[in-house]
Amino acid sequence: MSSGKRPTIYDVAREAGVATSTVSRALANPERVNTRTREHVREVAERLGYRTNPIARALPSGRTRTMALFVSDVTNPHFFGIIRGAEQQTRAAGCTLILGDTEESGEVESANLDRLSGAVDGFVIAASRMSDKEIRELSARHRLTLISRQVEGVPSVIVDHEDGTRQIMEHLGSLGHTSVVYLAGPRRSWLGARRWQVIAATARRLGMSARRLGPFPPAVRGGGAAADAAIGQGATAAIAHNDLLAIGMLRRFADRGVRVPADISVVGYDDIFGADFCAPPLTTLAGQFDEAGRLAVGLLLRARDGSRSRAADQVVLPSHLVIRGSTGPAVIR
Amino acid sequence: MSSGKRPTIYDVAREAGVATSTVSRALANPERVNTRTREHVREVAERLGYRTNPIARALPSGRTRTMALFVSDVTNPHFFGIIRGAEQQTRAAGCTLILGDTEESGEVESANLDRLSGAVDGFVIAASRMSDKEIRELSARHRLTLISRQVEGVPSVIVDHEDGTRQIMEHLGSLGHTSVVYLAGPRRSWLGARRWQVIAATARRLGMSARRLGPFPPAVRGGGAAADAAIGQGATAAIAHNDLLAIGMLRRFADRGVRVPADISVVGYDDIFGADFCAPPLTTLAGQFDEAGRLAVGLLLRARDGSRSRAADQVVLPSHLVIRGSTGPAVIR
DNA sequence: GAACGAGCGGCAAGCGGTTGCCAAAAGTTG
DNA sequence: CAACTTTTGGCAACCGCTTGCCGCTCGTTC
Predict the structure, then answer these.
(1) Of A332, B1, B202, B302, which is the most buried if we count CB atoms within 10 A?
(2) In degrees, to the nearest 5, what angle opens at C-alpha A163 toward C-alphas B77 and A105?
């Protein structure tokens, strides 16, 4: 009979004395079949240890009940929240999450997309490194939502970094800082570009000087060079592209005997794991990234289930500045 | 023609004037078809923007080119290395990784396994919370490898925590500690049980006293209670189930004015992100977890490609103690 | 009791590939 | 040039499940 193979719908049908269509319906479409038959079929299926084959199910419908999430670096704690949120929401919808690491590269992103297209019901791309044009094109062909990136006509969820960056600048301003540097991350970072605009504009408004340095790798190891560059500029405050970079800088400052915040203040972005217990604890811009992950998947599910109200789906989550020990009054020179 | 739908092998065949089988072979089985035909088919496929549908391809073969990795908590940095390693190895084999969070629960593990069975070619379970019996049963039915867990007859990769735990104990012993506590993690943790055995045995050998406390949630938030319990025991050294718990303890100690390591030494496991920059930096047992992830997937791939040399596949990776500021000479009372 | 309609189950055609088998074509050999 | 071998491409049968459509059964209604 079963001969070691896993039982199929045919086995169940034969055993239960009904047609395969009835089995299929009894399992997936309960109201379409008489209660008695349904229970009988289910009982037989149970007894045989039948599991519906997701692949076979997906073929006719084209729906795999699977979502893909691409992050630029799985080991960056910033993405933990996003990953966890996306995973939760996906699971809540009875679907499965596929995770992909795109290694900070737009090419890898689109290659992955290509490879998985057809195998998943939708894509969430966090911190995409692709150009607006590429994204728009892909969005026309695939179900796609973005995190930490906005492109017209493509659904997205971002944390309000513009307002947040303003908060950072005002915080620094109120501490008497007049000269800040921004330690930039990857050149293709959309967020980075937007932030710098806000920093520059706010600096002008507050009568501060602002310079951008970099790019630096958005990782702890990038912090050494970033710290040295910041000191070289004689800045009294440094805003790092993300917390990893900021933490790397803190270390370098410690090694060089530069005191934080007495000699220089440091601010990061993301409020990652560790930002609260590094030395000194890091002032950083926090956002609910798990919520972002959840919402992004939510948008995807909504899009999947018919309503294609694309354009409207540009969610902006609030951000807030968490002030810790790495920022303090400006040095008097 | 294409009418908006994505082109299938039939479209390509018609356009190229050959049979679908030829298209299939030209694309997947190059040596089976004449160079001229092959190039022609490929050119047409390219022009039409044809992508082979992974679902359809998987149906007859039963191979999805997909691996699943289950971790007990995606937000635990300990798993980053594992995730990254598994992702790399999977990708290197031209496959895709599916990530699942099992929330520290054996039931969720087997539920996920059930749901994904048939949709993936194999499973890697990190830090499984299932019983040996369950694992063995599942391993009979699915292709399965374990990380940080050994079960007879099931392929696995672990980091040598026994030797590592001995290193920890000897380190503490040489610092003059005579009374250590072990702050345990989840009750179902296999690693935890093994470690405690080694701690108890080594303590006996070295003439130290050892007590186990807990269980505590293996997260930073578990550290408060763990720290208080450790102090309540009057221990001079504390070994925490993992670095998260240890970091949580460090915080609590700081809040209570307990000096580390002057008043108490603290050791963790895993050497996670953050262990080197918390205050004080954490002494911890490090292992190459990315390598573990890579190897685990490697075993799976090998098993998939025929050779079912199961029993032999019990890999043990070396571990080493990273000594930092959280351990020091024992207090003289 | 005939006419009608709702409910239920079965038939069979896909979904988009892969692959064993076979025959035609091309190449080789004496 | 015939006989034989090797390539090469096509046919068609799956893989396991879903679903539109059809018809049978049975309960209702007049």
Answers:
(1) B202
(2) 45
d(CA B206, CA B58) in angstroms, rounded, equals: 58
- By the CB < 8 Å criterion, does A250 face chain B? yes
> Is the per-residue pLDDT at B70 higher than 70?
yes
Least CB–CB distance from B74: residue in A54, A87, A98: A87
Give A280's DSSP letter: S
**Which of A54, A74, A118 is opposite residue B87, by nearest beta carbon?**
A74
Assigned token pair, B76 = 């635990």
CA distance A171 to A327: 9
Encoded amino acid at B309, one letter: S
Q: Give the residue from chain A lying closest to B112, CA to CA.
A: A96
Compare all CA atoms of chain A with the CA of B74 and give the residue at the minimum distance. Answer: A84
Which residues of B fall within a CB distance of 8 Å from A247? 277
Q: Sort out which chain A residues have CB atoms less than 8 A from B221's CB and list them.
A: none
The single residue listed with the structure tokens 């990273």 is: B322
Among A279, A185, A275, A277, smallest CA distance to A239 is for A185
Which residues are CB-contacts of B259 (< 8 A; sequence separation ≥ 6)?
A: B253
Query: pLDDT tens-digit profile of B167-177?
Result: 999 999 999 99
Measured between alpha carbons, how far is B301 from B307 in angstroms, rounded to an integer?
10
Average pLDDT in chain A: 90
| B234/A231 Cα distance (integer angstroms) | 46
Q: Are B271 and B285 in contact (CB under 8 A)?
A: yes
Mark B230-265 as b/e (b = at least 16 C-beta within 10 Å). Answer: bbeeebbbbbbbbbbbbbbbbbbbbeeebebbeebb
| pLDDT beyond 50 at B116 | yes
> By three-state DSSP, how is residue B60 classified?
helix
pLDDT of A1: 38
